[in-house]
Design goal:
heterodimer; A: alpha/beta; Glutaredoxin; Rossmann fold; Ubiquitin-like (UB roll); 24 helices; 40% helix; B: 222 residues; alpha+beta; 2 domains; five-stranded mixed beta sheet; 5 strands
């Protein structure tokens, strides 16, 4: 591609990006591919040729509904657009034949829309139905049948089709139905309601108010705005969707100080976990009077259970790159690095491709878009060391050394990579930057709460019904996230706690789930926001085991440079090991607290300082459980914690 | 490497070639193509079996191994302008061979003018780099938090039991290598594992033997 100009970029963004009325989008992120998206996509690519009408097949990033991978979004003229989940090869063939060729939807695979409507805007052609209270959806078939019968009675069977859905996006609300294409959703539908639904809502196009589900969708997608829309490996597609418009605005109309001011208005804080204001980091780095500054995108997502950075890098690499270029402009950097885990080969490949394309188009390199600003970026691979997520360790790793942290100050903003001033931003932070500069800092700041503005992506996993990525404005409660968006606990169990912040965070017990999520509120509870992993634990999970798991992680990952972390962590793990075996000694709990304090105060870097957090927070809320292990042994403790007989098939302890 | 594996690495019809230079060269090439270099213990073993002086073998070895040297030289050339290139070079070697052979590490030390100790300092720090050759099949079991909570421990126990191997090691016949890894980023499908680059998700312990059989099958046919 030849070098682009402002006019070219503007032209691209004005060409409407959608590809005709018929298209198939297959989510091709690591999770999707692992679930078989590759072969599914092949089936579509081969199959659409025989349909007799133009249908575009696109390989897109993930929509975030990981529980239903592989995801396929289908649009067909005359049929409402739907998302199919758990699409295997057979389903793919069915979608080709029934949906694309036959204009009928498929049972048991559709995810209902989350952006629900409150009024009918046209005639209903499809009704999705699912029993959201039963795990297996036992009443679903009955309601599908009775709705279909009722429609037949009203002579509507050819106009309206009733489809069993895979997931309704509402949970424990009885039988739910969604009318397509209007997306009006009813919940707690009972058998006597069927007749009036058909009469009033299908025939009369009127809302039945007592059944209407009015809660709006809590998700706001800023960082994930483009994931699932276009092929991240198709540069022209990316341009058509308006990527690099933020950069255009910056280079054309803004001075670096203006960019920093806009970021200040937005209130964006570092999404890697610590929450340092992004504008301030940029300002400090900018004001260091030295040349050859660096900017680094931290994609070393080491926190087990978090995968939002991977999804963004895989689904929208150009936006992250755009954010990096804007950041470089703001601080006056000449070179930038993406530091990405080697365990994410797909993300690495897509970012590398994005860099090559951007360079060819003149968006990287000398004199970007004729603005006089020059900047180039490269990819560096992590090599499986959790500590390299820490700024100084990450810098050492890029320099080709062991990833050992060094004491701060000097901060990287003064003396960072190769001794030059360096700013390090997380993937999610950078992905939000272009959106802020296109739509304005004030727009971004309207989401969120006072000190924590904007949106945050969380990876909700563990014992949750629908593990997935959600992006919500800060200030929503943990209960909203876990129950309303992800369906609560898997199986007929009760929730015990939610763990946030990974190995540096802590557990938040069930009674505190009403907490509004923000940097400060989670810190008060003894946890942290962290990178956004949210692990749901149910009554079967032993808190001693869980804290042992996290601590072992930190002990394994400790670089060994400073004694508090190296020795303290190991000793604490020994105590937890014997506690978990029921061989605890008197005073162990006090010893844990003492060691924790020493580690927090004296460790060199964040890893050691925060390593005791999971243990301390477990102790804070579940001390009786630790005591039960100490006083009564393992089986007694399990009985205590679960409040019921211990399961025979308990997870086997793993050798450290 | 224990001596028994060295034995199994030896070209089968070694003794019939006895003391013919061409045959010796061929056998070295065989080993070289398999490993990408000639492990010292295997070279010693060949020398012992054929009653050849190790020095003579060494001369031939250099001939064969000039590829290795060339490979390292290209890598060093490729990254020489890059600051902090050591990790990049090691990444390429790891990706090519599945581990970082000592011989190649020595070569890199030569070419970059970096002390071998410093290369090993880096190699041993990062989990990604391996010092021992992988197995024919590699199982990486995810022990991220989500997988852990959903029963990855039971899967690990089953895998150990099935493969008769401890985590982080390879079976005696080099067929299987079992690793426990940090999050592979597929938490939505936990518990998950990666076998020979293919990811399996939503598993339980009973799936482990099935996956092992599935992976081992193509070999049984051939």
């Amino acid at each position: 591609m030849s070098k682009l100009t402002y006019a070219d970029l503007e032209k691209y963004s004005k060409v409407f990006a959608d590809s005709g009325p018929n298209w198939v989008r297959v989510s091709m992120d690591t999770g999707g591919i692992a679930a078989g998206a590759d072969t599914v996509c092949d089936i579509f690519e081969k199959g659409v040729g025989t349909l007799g009408f133009p249908t575009e097949v696109r390989r897109v990033g993930s929509l975030g509904y990981s529980f239903a991978d592989p995801l396929v979004e289908v649009a067909r003229e005359g049929v409402p657009r739907v998302i199919y989940g758990r699409v295997d090869d057979e389903t793919a063939h069915h979608i080709l034949q029934d949906h694309l060729a036959g204009r009928r939807l498929l049972d048991d695979h559709i995810l209902a829309w989350r952006n629900r409507a409150l009024t009918f805007d046209g005639p209903t052609t499809f009704i999705l139905v699912k029993d959201t209270s039963a795990e297996k959806g036992d009443k679903t078939q009955f309601f599908q049948f009775s709705l279909a019968e009722e429609l037949k009675r009203c002579n509507l069977q050819d106009k309206v089709q009733v489809i069993r859905a895979l997931d309704m996006g509402v949970y424990d609300e009885g039988v739910a139905v969604q009318f397509l294409p209007s997306r009006v959703t009813y919940t707690n539908v009972l058998a006597p309601d069927v007749a009036r639904i058909v009469k009033t809502s299908v025939q009369g196009k009127k809302i039945i108010d007592d059944l209407l589900y009015k809660k709006p969708d809590k998700q706001v997608r800023v960082v994930m705005r483009n994931c699932g829309k276009f092929d991240p490996e198709n540069f022209q597609d990316c341009l058509r969707y308006g990527i690099y418009q933020g950069l255009v605005r910056v280079l054309r109309t803004m001075k670096p100080e203006d960019v920093i001011a806009e970021m200040k208005t937005s209130g964006l804080r570092g999404r890697g976990g610590a929450g340092f204001p992004t504008w301030l980091k940029w300002k400090i780095t900018r004001e260091v009077p030295r040349s050859n500054k660096y900017i680094i995108c931290n994609g070393d997502e080491g926190d087990p259970g978090a995968y939002m950075d991977r999804s963004v890098l895989e689904g929208d690499p150009h936006s992250v790159l755009e954010g990096l270029i804007i950041a470089a402009y703001a601080i006056g950097a000449v070179r930038g690095y993406f530091y990405i885990r080697a365990e994410y080969p797909l993300a690495v490949r897509r970012v590398e491709k994005a860099i090559v394309e951007a360079r060819a188009a003149g968006l990287l390199g000398e004199n970007i878009l004729g603005s006089g600003f020059s900047f180039d970026a490269k990819v560096r691979l992590g090599a499986g060391a959790f500590v390299c997520g820490e700024e100084t360790a990450l810098i050492a790793s890029i320099e080709g050394k062991r990833g050992s942290p060094s004491p701060r100050p000097p901060y990287p903003s003064e003396r960072g990579l190769f001794g030059r001033p360096t700013a390090i931003n997380n993937v999610e932070t950078l992905a939000a930057v272009p959106a802020i500069l296109v739509r304005g800092g004030a727009w971004y700041a309207q989401h969120g709460v006072e000190k924590s503005k904007g949106t945050k992506v969380f990876a909700v996993t563990g014992k949750v019904r629908n593990p997935q990525l959600v992006e919500v404005p800060l200030g929503v409660t943990l209960r909203d996230i876990v129950f309303d968006l992800c369906g609560g606990v898997f199986g007929s169990k009760t929730i015990k706690a939610v763990q946030t912040g990974g190995p540096s965070g802590g557990v938040i017990p069930e009674h505190l789930l009403e907490t509004k999520v923000s940097y400060e509120s989670l810190q008060e509870l003894g946890s942290i926001m962290g990178s956004g992993g949210m692990i749901v634990m149910d009554q079967d999970d032993s808190m001693v085991e869980v804290s042992r798991f996290y601590l072992r992680f930190c002990v394994d990952e400790s670089c060994g440079k400073c004694a508090p972390c190296r020795i303290g962590g190991y000793q604490m793990l020994q105590i937890l090991n014997r506690l978990a075996r029921g061989r605890g000694e008197k005073g162990d709990i006090e010893r844990i607290r003492a060691i924790s304090k020493a580690m927090q105060k004296a460790s060199l870097c964040g890893l050691g300082q925060t390593a005791p957090n999971p243990v301390l927070s477990a102790l804070r809320y579940f001390e009786p459980e630790f005591k039960a292990y100490l006083e009564g042994g393992v089986s007694y403790a399990r009985k205590m914690s679960a409040n019921r007989p211990a399961e025979p098939a308990a997870a086997e302890p793993v050798n450290a | 490497m224990p001596p028994d594996t060295t034995q199994s690495e030896m070209p089968a019809n070694l003794s019939t070639w006895k003391d013919e230079e061409a045959a010796l060269l061929e056998s070295l090439e065989q080993i070289e193509s398999k490993h990408g270099f000639i492990p010292r213990n295997i070279a010693e073993e060949i020398a012992r079996v054929l009653e050849v002086k190790l020095e003579r073998l060494r001369k031939l070895q250099i001939k064969v191994e000039s590829n290795v040297r060339k490979e390292v030289d290209t890598l060093v050339e490729k990254w020489k302008d890059e600051e902090g290139s050591l990790i990049l070079i090691l990444h390429e070697i790891e990706n090519q061979h599945g581990y970082v052979p000592r011989e190649i590490a020595m070569e890199v030390s030569h070419a970059l003018g970096v002390k071998l100790a410093r290369i090993y300092e880096v190699l041993t720090f990062y989990h990604y780099f391996k010092l021992k050759p992988p197995g024919r099949h590699n199982m990486a079991l995810c022990m991220g938090t989500a997988c852990y909570l959903k029963g990855a421990s039971a899967m690990l126990a089953e895998a150990k039991n099935q493969l008769k191997v401890e985590e982080g090691s390879t079976t005696a016949d080099r067929e299987w290598h079992l690793d426990v890894v940090r999050c592979i980023g597929c938490c939505g499908m936990s518990p998950a594992m990666v076998v020979d680059g293919k990811t399996y998700g939503r598993l339980n312990a009973t799936d482990v033997p099935r996956i092992i059989a599935l992976t081992a099958q193509p070999k049984a046919k051939s």
